[in-house]
Amino acid sequence: MDELLADFIAETREMLEQSGTELVAWEADPSDKARIDTIFRFVHTVKGNCGFFDFPQLERLSHAAEDALAECRAGRREPDSALVSAVLAIIDRIGAMTDAIEAGEELDGKDDDALIAALDASGPTEIQSEVTVQPEAVDEAGEDAPAKGQRQSMQRSIRLPVDLLDEVMKGVSDMVLARNDLARRLREAGEQPTIDGPFERLSAILADVRTSITRMRMQRLEHLFSSLPRLVRDLSNELGKQVMVDFEGGEVELDREMIEMVRDPLTHIIRNAIDHGIEKPVDRLKKGKREIGLMRFAARQSGNQISLLVTDDGNGIDVDRLSEKAVAAGIYSHSEIKQMSQAQKLQLIFEPGLSTAAEVSSISGRGVGMDVVRSNLERVGGAIAVSSKPGEGTSFHLQLPLTLSIIAALTVSSDGQHYALPRSYIEEIVFGSSSSVEFAEAGERRLVTFRGRRVPCISLADVLGTESNERCDWESKTLVLIRLASDDVFALAVDRVHDHEDVVVKPIAPAIMATRLYAGTTLLDDGSPMMLIDLPSIAQMRGLVGELRSKPAIIAETQDKEEKAATPVMLFAGLDGRKRAVRLELVRRIDTVYADAFDIEGDRAQAVIEGRIFPLAGIEHGALPADRCRLLRLSDGESEVVYAVSEVLDAAEMTEEIVPSANDRSIEGVTLIGGKPVPLIDGHTLFQRHGVPQRSDSPLVCRLPQNSEWARTILEPLVVAAGYRIAGDAEEEADLAIALAGDTADETPGARETVRLRPDPEDTGDGSIYRYDRDGLMAVLKRVRTGRAA
Amino acid sequence: MNELLLMCTIAGRSAAIPALRVQSVLEIDTVTPIPGTPDYVCGITPLRSQALTVIDCSLALGFDQPSNSPERRAAVIEHDGHTYALLVDAAEDVAQATSDPVAIPGGLGEGWQRAAIGMVETESGPVVLVDVETIIAGPPALAA
C-alpha cells in the first residue's frame, strides 16, 4: 500500500510539471486541443487515483477541473485567462496536497470552494454539461490507452533508487579495473589468439555498458525547461509584464543531480530578469522594442561541459547604479571603482551583499543574491559569467560539468608523483624555460612575468612540502597558469604536465582533508590512486586571493588596449593538434575526404577533391589521420591549396598585433586570440610554395573513341569531371587517349598516352582496364595529370 | 565476553582489534604517499575501485617508530563513510575473548592508555583491545 501511495505521489508530481507548461502554452493558443487533452488527462488521472486512496478533497478539486476542461474540449466554452488561472490554482493546490500526503500530514481543512467557484465564474453555457460530458470522460478513462496524436512518444520507464544506480556504477568501475589488470597480464603473456579475441569483445561490451550506466543518470534538459514557462508566466503576470520564453537545446543531457542543482540558480536569474531587467510593455513600446519581452535559454554540450546561456532583451544591468551600491555597501572605495573597466564593474553583481533592486519586492532583492548563485554553481564545479548591454539586455553564461562526480582534470607530476588539477581553473601552460617567461623575486615571493602580466608563482612541490622553494629549479619547471573563480591568477610550477583526463572523484578521509591541500582522490586506469589538488584552498592558504583582490592593479593588463580593427580568422588544430589560425578571407570552404584522396610522394603532396587535384599543405605538422581528414580549401583568388587539419575549431577575431617570427617563414607571426598565442599561417608563403595556377586555365585534353555511344554517354562525363577537356577533332594533340579494346582503328597519334578499356572484367594481361573499373580509370586520369603537374 | 578479536602486533606488543569492525585483512602492495599529511597517514592504496587511507598504527598511537611490518598487513576498517587500512606489525589470527575488557590499575602506559578500550583475556594471554576511532584520529598532538 505504501508503495502504491509513493507511486501515486511520484506520478502526480511528474504530471504536475508537465501540465504546467502545457497550460501556459494552451493559454497562448486555446485552440490547441492536444494541450487541453494533456491537462485533462492529468486531472482525470488524479481523480481516478483518488478513488483508491480516499482523498475526498483532492477528488473534488480534480473533478471540478475536469468538468471545466471537458466543457472546453467539447467546444462549449472558450478557454480564457481566468479559466487558465483557475485551473492553475487548482493544480497548485493538488501539488500542495500531494506534498502533504507525502509528508504523511493530515490535509489541512482549507475550504476549496473558492477555487472551484473560480472555474465556474465565466462559464456561459452550463446547462447541458451533465449528460454529454460524462461519456467522453469515460471514453478517455483508460490512461494506458495511448493518446491519439500524442506529440512525444512516451518511453517506458520505471523508478529506481539512486543508491542502486551508484552501486551498479561502482560495480562497473570495478569491472573496468579488473579488465585493465587482465589486459596487462595478457600483454605480458604475449599474443594468444584464442583469448585475445574474446577479450577484445569483452572490453567492447564493457565500454558500452559503462556508457549506458552513465546515461542512466542522465536526463534531458527539457525536463528542467518544462517547468520554466510556468514560472515566467506567474512572475510576469504578477509584475504586469509580458514575457515570452524560448528554448533551444532541450535534448542536451545532464546528470539528474546536476539538473536539480541548476534549478535554483536558474530560477534566481529568471526572477531577476523579469523583475529588474524586462521593462513594462508601455516602456518597451516607447523604446521601440516589441511589447513582449523575450527570455531565451540555449543549452549546448561541448565535451564534458554544458554551457547554458540565459538571455533577456530587457534594460540591461545598470552598471553605474551597481557601482554606487558597491561603494555604499563599503565593498569598494570610489577610487577603486574609478579604476575599474566596465566589464569589471559588471562583475560587481556577484559581490555578496549587493542588490540592484531599489527596493525589496516579493520577487527579488531579498538579500539572496547572485553571489549565492555563483557559489552554488562553483561548488559543483561550474562557473557563471555575465554580460550586459544597456538598453538591450543581459545574458548569463553558465558552465556546468556533465556530472557531479566526473571532472575534467589535467594530470601533472611533482617529485615523481602524479596529481590531478581541475581543468576548469587552468588557463594556460607554459614552460619555465620559455623565452616569454621571466622570473623575478619580491621579498620571499616568487613572481613570474608572462605576456605583460606579473603573477605570483608557487611551486607545487613547495606547497606539498616535498621540496623547498630555495632548491627549486624554476627554469626546468612547467608553469600552469591558474585562474580562480574569483579572477585571481597565479602560476603553479610542476615538474611535468601529462595528460587531460576525465576523472571520477571520490571523497578523502578527514585526516587528509585537514591538510586543505586535496579535494579528493581518483583512480588511474591502472588502479593506482592519484590525489586531486584543491587549488582554491591552496590559493587561500598562500594568501594569493585576498592580496590580489585589494590591489587589482597587479594582475591588470599592463596597458589598456586600444581599439583595433578586427581581422576575422579561422582557428583550427593542425595535424599535430596545435592551434593555428588562418585569415578567413583565404578560406573558401571546408572539405572532408578519405585517406585515399591523398597522393603523397617525396616533396609532392596532393589531394583529390571531387575529381580535382589540389596541392596539399599542412602535412608537415604530423601524420594524416587513418580514415577521414578535414581539409581547409584556401584560395588566393587564382589558385587553390588545401590544408590538412585535425579539427576546425572556430571563427575568431584577431585584434592584437602580430608578432612576426624570424625563423619560421610559414607563419606571419604569432598573435593573441582570447589571450592565447596562436600562430597565423602566412598565406603568401603558402601559395608561393604550393600554389599552382588553377587547372581550368589549361585543362588536360583527352581523346575519346569517336564512334562509341558508350564513350560519349558514360565515359565522357567521368573524364570531364576529372578535369579533362575532350579533344575536339582528330588533329588536336591530346594528353591522354582512351580507346576501347579491339578498336585499333581509332588509335591516334598525338596522345602522350593511350589507355585501353576492355568490356570483360577478366584481366587479360594486356594492361587494359575493365570499362567499369571506375577506380582504375580515375587512377590513370590522376596519374596523367600529376605527371604533367610534377 | 566471547567477542571475536583480530589478534595483531602493534609497536611490538600484542593487541587486538574488535573483529566485527574488520572487513578484511590485506597485504598492502603499494602505497601512494600524500605529501603534507601527518606522518601516521602513510598514504592511499587501491582496493578494487576504492582508495583506502593507510594509517600506521604505531605512529598513530604516538610511538616514535613506524610499524615494523615485513608482510605489510593491514586491517580494513570503515569509519564514517571512509575506508581505512590500519597497518600493523603483524596480524595473526582471530581469537575469542574470554573476558570483558577491563581497566588495569596503574594504566597501560602512554599511547596505549589513550587508545585502549581495556585489557581482555584470551586463550593466549592478556591483550590490549584497541579503539579504532582513536587510531584513526591520530596521535594526541594532532588530534588536539
From TrEMBL, chain A:
It catalyses: ATP + protein L-histidine = ADP + protein N-phospho-L-histidine. Transmembrane segments: none annotated. One of its GO terms (biological process) is chemotaxis. Residues 153-404 form the Histidine kinase domain. Keywords: Kinase, Phosphoprotein, Transferase, Two-component regulatory system. It comes from the Bacteria. Residues 406-544 form the CheW-like domain. Its EC number is 2.7.13.3. Residues 747-768 are annotated as: Disordered. One of its GO terms (molecular function) is phosphorelay sensor kinase activity. Involved in the transmission of sensory signals from the chemoreceptors to the flagellar motors. CheA is autophosphorylated; it can transfer its phosphate group to either CheB or CheY. This is Chemotaxis protein CheA. It comes from Qipengyuania gaetbuli. The lineage of its organism: Bacteria, Pseudomonadati, Pseudomonadota, Alphaproteobacteria, Sphingomonadales.
From TrEMBL, chain B:
Pfam families: CheW. One of its GO terms (cellular component) is cytosol. InterPro entries: CheW, CheW-like_dom_sf, CheW-lke_dom. Residues 2-141 form the CheW-like domain. GO terms for biological process: chemotaxis; signal transduction. SMART domains: CheW (SM00260). This is Chemotaxis protein CheW. It comes from Qipengyuania gaetbuli.
